[in-house]
Amino acid sequence: METNPTVAINISDDLYGLSNTKSDPRDLPEPDVHIVTCDALRIPAHSSILASVSPVLENIIDRPRKHRSSERVIPITGVPYDAVLAFVRFLYSSRCTEEHMEKYGIHLLALSHVYLVPQLKHRCTKELGQRLTIENVVDVLQLAKMCDAADLYLKCLKLVANHFKAVENTEGWKFLQDHDPWLELDILQFIDETELRKRKTRRLREEQRLYLQLSEAMECLEHICKEGCTSVGPYDMEPGHKRSPCSKFSTCQGLQMLIQHFASCKRRVNGGCLRCKRMWQLLRLHSSMCDEPDSCRVPLCRQFKLKMQQEKKKDDARWKLLVRKVVSAKTISSLSLPKRKREEELGETRSSHGIRSFRL
Questions:
Q1: Residue 227: beta bridge partners?
Q2: Which of the chain's ends, N or C, has fewer CB atoms near its CB within 10 Å?
Q3: Opening angle at CA 142, ends 138 and 143, nearest 5
Q4: pLDDT tens digits, residue range 34-92?
Q5: Burial class of 106 by CB neighbour count within 10 A (0 to 12, 13 to 18, 19+)
Q6: Is the pLDDT of residue 356 over 60?
Q7: Least-confidence region, from 63-72, 218-227, 302-311
Q8: Alpha carbon of 139 to those of 49, 76, 133, 167: distances in Å?
Q9: Read out DSSP for 10-53?
Q10: What domains can be seen in the chain, in order of their start residue?
């Protein structure tokens, strides 16, 4: 197109986006304001419509003119003419085509922010978030920060953090390093914080898994010492070799093997066996959690409690914390009992087909 400051675009239904609406363009008065673009082209418009949609345009329109006879002109520069035209269409019809959003989404976001058009800003933020790529994410990130688009800004940061190696090789990132080191620092800090959160989450999950395993071990220990399982049972009952496996067989089997080792190990007296130490710790943990030591069938439960009372010693803070965590895990496990029952039924079905897991 030729750049001529006297050229004005003809008024048409398509210009104002009214071609597919119930509004009749013939009802509109003559345009009383012109929008001048960076190409020096002029778009005729109606001041009443612009002012009703954008408070910024309303202030520009209401500014006093030097001469009453001078025409009203609103300069919108810095973006392509077609982007300004799409912006004006939205002001008239509150609609924006997918094609315009794909081509001029970044420009429309900037215009919607500058001229305070929240409906268009929301649309642009949503559309740009769906069109993010490795190549454009840095540009969109910079614009989202300037336009206070918090949701889009966070989405861009997450994409950069998840694909940093690829983003680091783009021209946008190189430009950012040269011209906006503060934003680069914000991005790197976000990546560090994200990694810290991931590591913390993994650590908490591992800890929770350990507490659940200990809670399950406590249940199995009580079950073995009270009812007996496949190979280990109470001292006053016959060995239960014919008993069928329990619902927690993988844990129960490992605990039975540990008990058998504990009963026959020659080094446990001198504290030289790691497996025996583990068994002592499990027995102590049970005693710390047990509410009925006088009637409990687990070995040494009452003795552990009496020893603590006689020595008048309190458990150290770390041990108390461990007990609380295991008790908490047991409570959480009991709350999810219906789900566990379904899983156990599924496990029994698998066992009937010869599928079984073992864990020591």
A1: none
A2: N
A3: 115
A4: 999 988 889 999 999 999 999 999 999 888 776 665 678 899 989 999 999 999 999 99
A5: buried
A6: no
A7: 63-72
A8: 32, 21, 10, 11
A9: PP-HHHHT-TTSS--GGGS----EEEE-TTS-EEEE-HHHHHHH
A10: 1-131 (3.30.710.10), 227-350 (1.20.1020.10)
Does the reported pTM lie above 0.70? no
Q: Output the average pLDDT for the chain.
A: 80
HSE-up of residue 146 (Cα within 13 Å, Cβ side): 15
d(CA 83, CA 85) in angstroms, rounded, equals 5
Q: For residue 186, what are the contacts with CB-CB under 8 A and spacing of at least 6? A: none
Q: How many CB atoms lie within 10 A of CB 85?
A: 20
Kindly report the length of the chain. Answer: 360
- The residue behind tokens 């899983």 is 343
- Which residues are bridge partners to 44 per DSSP? 34
Contact 230, 243 (CB under 8 A): yes
Distances, alpha carbon 63 to alpha carbons 42, 59, 74, 280, in Å: 20, 6, 11, 86
Cα atoms in the 13 Å half-sphere on the side-chain side of 45? 33
Amino acid letter, residue 159: L
Q: Are strands 42-45 and 72-75 parallel, antiparallel or unpaired?
A: unpaired
pLDDT band per the 50, 70, 90 thresholds, residue 230: confident
Tell me the two tokens of residue 183: 């934003």
Q: Which amino acid is at 146?
A: M
Are the beta carbons of 142 and 180 closer than 8 angstroms?
Answer: yes
Q: If residue 112 lies in a helix (H) or strand (E), which one and from where to where? A: helix 98-114
- The DSSP element (H or E) to which 290 belongs, if any, is none
Q: For residue 221, give the nearest of 320, 336, 326 by alpha carbon.
A: 326
pLDDT of residue 226: 82
Could you give phi then psi for residue 243, rounded to 5 degrees? -70, 145
| Residue tagged 């006093």 (tokens) | 64
